[in-house]
Design brief:
Distance between the termini: 35 Å
Keywords: ATP-binding, Ligase, Nucleotide-binding
Strand order of the largest sheet: 12-11-8-6-7-14-15-25
Number of helices: 18
Bound molecules: adenosine-5'-triphosphate, magnesium ion
CATH superfamily of the largest domain: ANL, N-terminal domain
Number of strands: 32
Number of domains: 3
CATH class of the largest domain: Alpha Beta
Largest sheet: 8 strands, mixed
Family: Belongs to the ATP-dependent AMP-binding enzyme family.
GO molecular function: 3-hydroxypropionyl-CoA synthetase activity; acetate-CoA ligase activity; AMP binding; ATP binding
Mean pLDDT: 95
InterPro entries: Ac_CoA_lig, ACAS_N, AMP-bd_C, AMP-bd_C_sf, AMP-binding_CS, AMP-dep_synth/lig_dom, ANL_N_sf
CATH topology of the largest domain: Rossmann fold
EC number: 6.2.1.1
Shape: globular
Low-confidence stretches: none
CATH architecture of the largest domain: 3-Layer(aba) Sandwich
Helix content: 25-40%
Length: 629
């Protein structure tokens, strides 16, 4: 990274109501952070004590660069923190799960019911021959049985690998093979935008030539719309016939694997990230309780799918460990109309709403009259994850959904990190465009390629300077790839993102380091230029890439989706170019702007700039398994 990667920093900030800090579990962020710095292992030791263990650990951390072992010697089962302890603590009749189907159908589970059903399904899996360490692949819609089966795997020590049920047969096949899954759990159908989508037939295709697969468990939602092949397939509910209700939790070593999960594939071939039991359980409980500040009466709705890390950590393990009520739904944000999500918040009294910038920008595009139809007074925290929340989208989210008073938690983290790493803790000033500060327990910095810390205002590589409990332990069957994260800059974990900090240590994410654009020797992060474009009233979404330029090395090419009512024109091109020039400088001025109706995205909604670039350069598209159709 060259020295002159200067970034113009926004200076706006909003002060949240001091009550948030006063009432929060974390208390004063700066105090908490100082406490951590004084004794990092002591901090994590304290946090680990907040979950349930069978046997305490001998040592908090063993760091044999780049391999970490957390809570060595300790044993636990994450499901006792998520279920059993709430039963004991008098929360048995509290709602754990509220599910909402597309047609308005609703199902609820108390902690007692969830606990019972998890144990029964765990026993069913055992009866099928599933043992500790076996890999189970999920290809399921977001229904309660999915959560039940997932927790049942954890209960018996089987390793789950969840594949988003929107992926095609090929992507599923590759993941089943990679994990050598013994069992695949699916449903006959998923429901999306009023359509019934066959999942089971995709699984049929996907398990050709996968010798590891012994059984396929099918949840029949449509009163068994499919005939099951008796040699191989089992009906989800028939499996429960005659099973015992009680299933003692398998004793897991803190470092035993809990799950494998593939990254989103935004920048290349997805990586099979491996998380372990003790550190992950500690990390997600900690952030659910101290960052999302989950309290007894909270109803958390994280709109992600369980197929992404966000779903693992903040639909399932984190909030259940913290004893919250979790909302899950099969609905899409704009079907049957863009009011559906706001109506769910109103009706279910959601207090914490967690979504992605792509959804926020979609809502901006369709207009604020939709959320304005509903009473959103129950909300107390609104969050964002997945991509940079550009200032324009922040402002809209804060004003229209947050009513200028509810804290916006823009959370930066990754599949690899397992838990929130950077955000604006409750009570700290919020700065549009900045994700915020490292959470206590985490040390981050922005550095050049040699690991030298960059001063405020100078962009560079985002690194994490010390191991943390919920860090990935390896990339499944590709440990070399794991080591690369820690070897690019010695002793540091390189996240693969570009960032900049301001004078207060706030971090702004500037884009992916793979997507960096170098114009006449100056580095540009994609997010900066995209944010500037989206600021313009005509622009709904933008993506930029670097294209070869004879004089400057690279030039910026922008792809722009216009707000409804605007038409592409040469005048608009000039206006947008000028706008970028004024907000960032001549270096960032797009050399060309193409107006488009859509952008290539992952199925979780992230813009895939590498696809735009490959198309532009007539190159091979690379791995497209996670590309949305
Ligand atoms: P792949 O690693 O396969 O290319 P991916 O990086 O998109 O896919 P994830 O682990 O799902 O896979 O996403 C993590 C990445 O998402 C981060 O590295 C970052 O680029 C982006 N991200 C997540 N949250 C934020 C945020 N709040 N602000 C900015 N970027 C974010
Ligand atoms: Mg990544």
């Amino acid at each position: 990274m060259s020295e002159d990667f200067e970034v113009i920093l926004h200076t706006k900030s909003y002060l949240p109501d001091p009550e948030y800090k006063a009432q929060s579990h974390l208390g004063d962020y700066h105090n908490a952070y100082q406490e951590f710095l004084k004794n990092p292992e002591g901090f994590w030791d304290r946090m680990a004590r907040e979950i349930e263990w069978m046997k305490p650990w001998d040592k908090v951390l063993e760091w044999d660069y780049p391999y970490a072992r957390w809570f060595s010697g300790g044993t636990l089962n994450i499901t006792t923190s998520c279920l059993d302890r709430h039963i004991k603590a008098g929360r048995r009749n509290k709602l754990a799960l509220i599910w909402r189907g597309e047609d308005g159908e609703e199902r609820v589970y108390t902690y007692r019911q969830l606990h019972r059903d998890v144990m029964r399904f765990a026993n069913a899996l055992k009866r099928l021959g599933v043992k500790k360490g076996d890999r189970i692949c999920f290809y399921m819609p977001l229904v309660p049985e999915h959560i039940i089966a997932l927790l049942a795997c954890a209960r018996i020590g089987a390793v789950h690998s969840i594949v988003y049920a929107g992926f095609g047969a090929e992507a599923l096949h590759a993941r089943i093979r990679d994990a050598e899954a013994k069992v695949v759990i699916t449903a006959d159908v998923g429901k999306r935008r009023g359509k019934v989508i066959s999942l089971r037939s995709i699984v049929d295709d996907a398990i050709r030539n996968t010798p590891s697969v012994e059984k396929v468990i099918v949840l029949c939602r449509e009163k068994c719309s499919v005939e099951l092949y008796s040699e191989m397939e089992e009906d989800f509910y028939s499996l429960l016939d005659g099973v015992e209700t009680d299933c003692p939790p398998e004793e897991m070593d803190a470092e035993d694997p809990l799950f494998i999960l593939y990254t989103s594939g935004t920048t290349g071939m997805p990586k099979g990230i491996v998380h372990t039991c003790g550190g992950y359980a500690t990390g997600v409980h900690y952030t659910a309780r101290y960052i999302f500040d989950l309290k007894e009466n909270d109803v958390l709705w994280c709109t992600a799918d369980t197929g992404w890390i966000t779903g693992h950590s903040y639909i399932v393990y984190g909030p259940l460990s913290a004893g919250a009520t979790v909302v899950i739904t099969e609905t899409t944000p704009d079907w049957p109309d863009p009011g559906i999500w706001w109506s769910i918040i109103e009706e279910l009294g959601v207090t914490i709403f967690y979504t992605a910038p792509t959804a926020i920008r979609m809502f901006m595009r369709v207009g604020e009259e939709w959320p304005n139809k509903y009473n959103l007074d129950s909300l107390r925290i609104i969050g964002s994850v997945g991509e940079p929340l550009n200032p324009e989208a922040f402002e809209w989210y804060y004003r229209v959904i947050g009513k200028n008073r509810i804290p916006v938690l823009d959370t930066w983290w990754q599949t690899e990190t397992g838990m929130h790493m950077i955000t604006t803790p409750l009570g700290e000033p919020m700065k549009p465009g900045f994700a915020g500060l490292p959470v206590p327990g985490i040390e981050v910095d922005v550095v050049d390629k040699d690991g030298n810390s960059m001063p405020p205002g100078q962009g560079g590589l985002l690194v994490i300077k010390k191991p943390w409990p919920s860090m990935m332990r390896t990339v499944y069957r590709n440990d070399e790839r794991y080591r690369k994260y820690w070897n690019q800059i010695r002793n540091y974990y390189t996240a693969g993102d570009l960032a900049v900090k301001d004078n207060d240590g706030y971090i702004m994410i500037l884009g992916r380091s793979d997507d960096i654009i170098i114009v006449a020797g100056h580095n540009l992060g994609t997010a900066e230029v995209e944010s500037a474009l989206v600021e313009h009233e005509a622009v709904a979404e933008a993506a930029v890439i670097g294209v070869p330029d004879e004089i400057k090395g690279q030039a910026v090419k922008a792809f722009v989706i216009l707000v409804k009512g605007y038409e592409p024109s040469q005048k608009l091109v000039s206006e947008l170019t000028y706008h970028v020039r004024m907000s960032i400088g001549p270096i960032a001025m797009p050399a060309s702007i193409e107006f488009v109706d859509s952008l290539p995205r992952t199925r979780s909604g992230k813009i895939m700039r590498r696809i735009l670039k490959a198309k532009e350069m007539n190159m091979d598209l690379g791995d497209t398994s996670t590309l949305e159709e």
